[in-house]
Amino acid sequence: MDPLPVEGWDVIERAAELARLGEEFALATVVWRMGPSSGRPGGRAVITATGIVHGWIGGACAEPVVIREAQRAIADRTSRLLLLGTPDQFGAAVPDGMTVIPIACQSDGALEVFVEPVVPVPRVVVVGRSPMAQTLVDLVRAVGWQGELVDSTDFTATSADPRSVVVVATQGHGDEEALEQALAAQPAYIGLVASHRRGETVLGYLADRGVAADRLQRVRVPAGLDLGSTAHREIAVAILAELVQLRAGGGLLPEAAEAVAGAASTTAEAVDPVCGMTVPADASSRPFTYEGRTYYFCSAGCRTAFENDPAAYLGQETPC
Questions:
Q1: 117: preceding bond cis by omega (within 30 degrees)
Q2: 291 — phi, psi (to 5°)?
Q3: pTM of the shown model
Q4: pLDDT tens by residue, 62-104
Q5: SS3 of residue 111 by DSSP
Q6: Rounded to whole angstroms, what are the CA distances from 88 to 95, 100, 109, 278?
Q7: Which of 42, 81, 137, 182 has its CA 20 to 30 A from that of 205?
Q8: Non-local CB neighbours of 190 within 8 Å, separated by 6+ positions
Q9: Are the C-beta atoms of residues 295 and 306 closer than 8 Å to each other?
């Protein structure tokens, strides 16, 4: 593999910056190349959940495919190895586990790209000063997450953000005020350490103050898995266990990231009838209508070829 070029380190630095900011992204690395593809082994790119690319992994055919697969990797948090080229280049030689994606673009080139999602560790803000609150922060840090203990008198909506986890453990000392501030921050998770009865009272108070019902429904009360009657250390374990469970299932995504993930999974796609490449079924893919049906293309060359002789390609078309 060629040495990583200077600009390649910029990609790594950008990845580290995004991780510090708590943003989810994918790292795409070219691990094999067949000319004349413009990508080369060692080429890297950081791809955000919104499809912004930092770096270089290939030209006009490869990049949109890698962006799409990177967004899927972020959404399902699963790495994937992509083999980009025409199917007849590989035949039966494709190893199990690889995903072959046709990209012709009037080129005999091919790329193998490894796409891995990078999920930053959660930032857990625990509001309160009880022994349970301190134990929870200690446990959070023990598993490698970010943990912060904030007294209720110091906690405001600016103490958290949409990527944070907030556990209100004030336990009767300003529960309503702390929870109202937590709701204003719109974090990925809000938990209240209280009994069901106490929780109903706190939520009812906030509802009377005009807090929207859909916001109040996001509050988990009591916070943590139900372990029955437990001591304060066990309550901390139960809360952390719930957070671990939620994170494993993608339940700690901020609302914006959930929307992006949903959009990535529902975006309409079509197959270019000329080269067989999967492309977005929108205006960016050079739509052309023939006999009442709209077709989409990866490049101007594929669209021109189709325009000149549609019948030559309609027999090759594969379902979307």
A1: no
A2: 50, 45
A3: 0.64
A4: 888 899 899 989 888 889 999 887 666 666 666 677 777 776 5
A5: strand
A6: 15, 11, 12, 16
A7: 137
A8: 166, 168, 179, 182, 183, 218, 219, 220
A9: yes
